[in-house]
């Protein structure tokens, strides 16, 4: 909470000058009690301001992007309306919303209640009480491991964590394609770009497309409270966030995988296909729909950028380094790059069951490959998935060529400005000299 008040104070000092009544310019620093009191006033003013913004957004049905622009350009309505509102209500509302995550926001509960009538099943993990595995401290090879692997192994047995943000209603209808995107709390701009491009929820010829972002908690503790409040707010606007109470670290990506599979198994009975990918890729939903057209029901479809005989990386400097104490075979089973792949909904449910029989592996896409191996399902490689980069040469024109992107299903890696630009180019009247035919 401290960080929060300090930050807001700074914000007020900077941007909101002139709007909130200020009397203390140039005055000497007040005594602690006075300071405390002032902090409360600041907080109250800020909270009221935020509430007004929320109410305005909801009432006007403004697009959030408009709202964001408005905020930047300082075109928001002044906080006057507050006076006409019942003060009591205002404060109880704001304080409930901005309270710590332990106390659920009221709408979340309402949403869940509405659905539990129809759906008996729900996320059944309510406490995250999982302590480090003390057995390992006695093991010799464990002591020689790098700290991140030690950390991974100490908590490897902690399978599931409670949900902080849930959307049980998301899957209550028949969904043709569920798009799920691995994201982290700080990458708000990536989520925004995805919502405006390939993550748009829509219906194409009766096929429903829905999008969800999968998140853990902020990995830096000092950032957690601040970002959590922003995320809660983002979720209020878009309603497309699933969040679990585990640290969003690289080695916890497999946790994200198994949490999503469990979630899908509980809440999604009628999802035909799942696209799962990173938040820094280009995706063409129309090409995906075209690709899926001739797929039959009951097929164990798992398709992506598949590596058939990848070797575990033994160079310590590499991001994907794996000590042989963790994996001692010379090859991984076939697996699809986690940047973006498609699986049939029913197969995802089988994967959930299988995943519970295996020990977690720190690399999420390899872990899924291990599950597929147990299920004896071979992932299928497809030309239209370029999740390991398009061409080796980073400066190659191919990386910027819209005609190339137009023919693809997934391309790694595009950050928000490039993604927005490429999306517009691909959807403009392109004249391409030859049609890339991968579908
Ligand atoms: C968490 O687990 C520890 C040891 O397993 C136990 O002592 C403690 O009471 C538990 N705390 C809660 C809140 O369940
Ligand atoms: C630690 O060892 C004990 C005894 O072998 C075992 O019962 C327990 O499950 C182990 N703990 C973990 C977290 O693996
Ligand atoms: C994964 O998340 C859990 C729960 O927050 C945490 O205890 C653990 O250290 C994390 N693991 C890694 C490898 O970051
Ligand atoms: C590989 O690891 C497995 C289990 O971790 C172990 O049983 C086996 O002996 C190891 N093989 C080699 C060649 O080290
Ligand atoms: C793109 O082409 C279509 C028909 O081919 C045309 O109707 C449309 O106006 C064109 N749009 C632009 C921006 O040129």
Automatic annotation (TrEMBL):
Positions with biased composition (Basic and acidic residues): 17-27
Bilayer-spanning residue ranges: 40-58
Q: Please, which domain of life does this record's source organism belong to?
A: Eukaryota
Q: Where in the cell is it found?
A: Golgi apparatus membrane
Its top-level enzyme class, in one word, is transferase
Pfam families associated with the record: Galactosyl_T
Q: Which residues form a coiled coil?
A: none
Q: Which GO terms describe its biological process?
A: keratan sulfate proteoglycan biosynthetic process; poly-N-acetyllactosamine biosynthetic process; protein O-linked glycosylation
GO molecular function term, any single one? UDP-glycosyltransferase activity
The alphabetical list of record keywords is: Glycoprotein, Glycosyltransferase, Golgi apparatus, Membrane, Signal-anchor, Transferase, Transmembrane, Transmembrane helix
Task: Name the pathway.
Answer: Protein modification; protein glycosylation
Q: Which PANTHER family match?
A: BETA-1,3-N-ACETYLGLUCOSAMINYLTRANSFERASE, UDP-GLCNAC:BETAGAL BETA-1,3-N-ACETYLGLUCOSAMINYLTRANSFERASE 7
Task: Report the sequence similarity comment from the record.
Answer: Belongs to the glycosyltransferase 31 family.
Its job: N-acetyl glucosamine (GlcNAc) transferase that catalyzes the transfer of GlcNAc via a beta1->3 linkage from UDP-GlcNAc to the non-reducing terminal galactose (Gal) in the linearly growing chain of N- and O-linked keratan sulfate proteoglycans. Cooperates with B4GALT4 galactosyltransferase and CHST6 and CHST1 sulfotransferases to construct and elongate mono- and disulfated disaccharide units [->3Galbeta1->4(6-sulfoGlcNAcbeta)1->] and [->3(6-sulfoGalbeta)1->4(6-sulfoGlcNAcbeta)1->] within keratan sulfate polymer.
Q: What is this protein called?
A: Hexosyltransferase
In which organism is this protein found? Anser cygnoides
Identify the gene encoding this protein: B3GNT7
């Amino acid at each position: 909470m401290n960080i929060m008040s300090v930050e807001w104070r700074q914000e007020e000092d900077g941007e909101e000058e002139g709007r909130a009544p200020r009397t203390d310019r140039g005055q000497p620093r007040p005594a602690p009690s006075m300071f405390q009191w002032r902090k409360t006033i600041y907080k109250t003013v800020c909270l009221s301001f935020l509430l007004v913004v929320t109410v305005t957004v909801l009432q006007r049905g403004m697009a959030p992007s408009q709202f964001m622009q408005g905020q930047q350009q300082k075109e928001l309505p002044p906080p006057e309306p507050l006076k006409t509102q019942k003060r009591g209500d205002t404060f109880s509302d704001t304080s409930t919303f901005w309270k710590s995550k332990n106390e659920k926001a009221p709408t979340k509960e309402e949403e869940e209640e509405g659905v539990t009538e129809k759906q008996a099943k729900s996320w059944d993990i309510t406490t995250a009480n999982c302590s480090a595995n003390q057995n390992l401290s006695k093991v010799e090879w464990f002591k020689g491991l790098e700290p991140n692997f030690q950390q991974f192994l100490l908590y490897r047995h902690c399978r599931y964590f409670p949900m902080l943000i849930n959307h049980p209603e998301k899957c209550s209808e028949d969904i043709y394609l569920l798009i799920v995107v691995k994201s982290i709390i700080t990458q708000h701009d990536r989520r925004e770009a995805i919502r405006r491009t390939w993550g748009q929820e829509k219906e194409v010829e009766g096929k429903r497309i829905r999008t969800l972002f999968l998140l853990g908690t902020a990995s830096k503790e000092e950032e957690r409270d601040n970002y959590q409040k922003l995320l809660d707010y983002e979720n209020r606007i878009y309603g497309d966030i699933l969040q679990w109470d585990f640290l969003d670290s690289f080695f916890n990506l497999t946790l994200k995988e198994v949490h999503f599979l469990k979630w899908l198994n509980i809440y999604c009975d009628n999802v035909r296909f799942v696209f799962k990918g990173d938040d820094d890729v280009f995706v063409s939903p129309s090409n995906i729909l075209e690709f899926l057209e001739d797929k039959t029901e009951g097929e164990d479809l798992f398709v992506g950028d598949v590596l058939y005989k990848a070797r575990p990386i033994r160079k310590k400097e590499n991001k994907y380094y794996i000590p042989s104490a963790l994996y001692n075979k010379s090859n991984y089973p076939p697996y699809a790059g986690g940047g973006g792949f498609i699986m049939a909904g029913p197969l995802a449910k089988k994967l959930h069951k299988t995943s519970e029989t295996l020990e977690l592996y720190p690399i999420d896409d390899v872990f899924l490959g291990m599950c597929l191996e147990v299920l004896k399902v071979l992932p299928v490689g497809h030309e239209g998935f370029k999740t390991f980069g398009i061409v080796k040469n980073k400066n190659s024109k191919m990386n910027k060529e819209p005609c190339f992107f137009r023919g693809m299903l997934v391309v790694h890696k595009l950050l928000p400005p490039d993604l927005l630009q490429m999306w517009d180019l691909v959807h403009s009247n392109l004249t391409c000299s030859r049609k890339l035919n991968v579908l």
